[in-house]
Amino acid sequence: MPQSGVLLVWPHEDTDWRADLPAVEAVYLELARAIAPREKLLVVCKDATHQRHVSASLQRENIDPRAVRYAIHSCNDSWARDIGPLTVLENGAARLLDFRFNGWGGKFPAEQDNALSASLVAQGTFGEVPAEHIDLVLEGGSIDTDGEGTLLTTRACLLHPTR
């Protein structure tokens, strides 16, 4: 099954990016410019005001609004790969896995991040794709798989006592 899109959690003033927000947003706009012509883009915004800001920024960059979908959820951080759902295929059908996220071993607040996957599912973001909460801490970015049964990780991430 091919990739169906890219999830970006857009940074905002209530994240660790606050001090460098203009520079970080410029990078996110570059990402969106590179992704939108090739893939659907799902952008998570803090609230409706933030969504209007992001939408206007993307329009100024001539990004086709038909390539972008929005979801509303306030996150503590913006590392979508660590905090978002993981998609697996089971008998040819997609299924979403929602692991617990604990802010990289409790280093940072993560309550909002940990609720992202459930919020996206509740908003119908993934249509009828079933989701399963797994009561196990996992940073999604700490694993990589080829879809053929091979999984790569590091001991520092996966086996760390607090992560």
Q: Can you lay out the helices and strands and say which pair or pack?
A:
Elements: E1 6-9, H1 21-35, E2 41-45, H2 48-60, E3 68-72, H3 80-83, E4 86-90, E5 93-100, H4 103-106, H5 111-114, H6 116-122, E6 131-137, E7 144-145, E8 151-152, H7 155-158
Parallel strand pairs: 1-2, 2-3, 5-6
Antiparallel strand pairs: 4-5, 7-8
- Oligomeric grouping of the chains: single chain
Q: Strands of the biggest beta sheet: in what spatial order?
A: 1-2-3
Mean pLDDT: 93
- Helix/strand/pairing class, anyone? alpha/beta
Percent range for β-strand residues: 15-25%
- Unreliable stretches, pLDDT < 50, 5 or more residues? none
Structure, briefly:
The protein is α/β, with parallel strands linked by helices and about 160 residues long. The protein folds into 2 domains: about 70 residues, no CATH class; about 80 residues, no CATH class. About 30% of the residues lie in helices and about 25% in strands.
Tell me what you see in this structure.
The chain is α/β, with parallel strands linked by helices and 163 residues long. The strands form 3 sheets. The chain has a 3-stranded parallel β-sheet with strand order 1-2-3. It has helices at residues 21-35, 48-60, 80-83, 103-106, 111-114, 116-122, 155-158; strands spanning 6-9, 41-45, 68-72, 86-90, 93-100, 131-137, 144-145, 151-152. It has 7 helices and 8 strands; from the N terminus they run E-H-E-H-E-H-E-E-H-H-H-E-E-E-H. The chain folds into 2 domains: 6-72, no CATH class; 83-158, no CATH class. The protein starts with 5 loop residues before the first strand and ends in a 5-residue tail after the last helix.
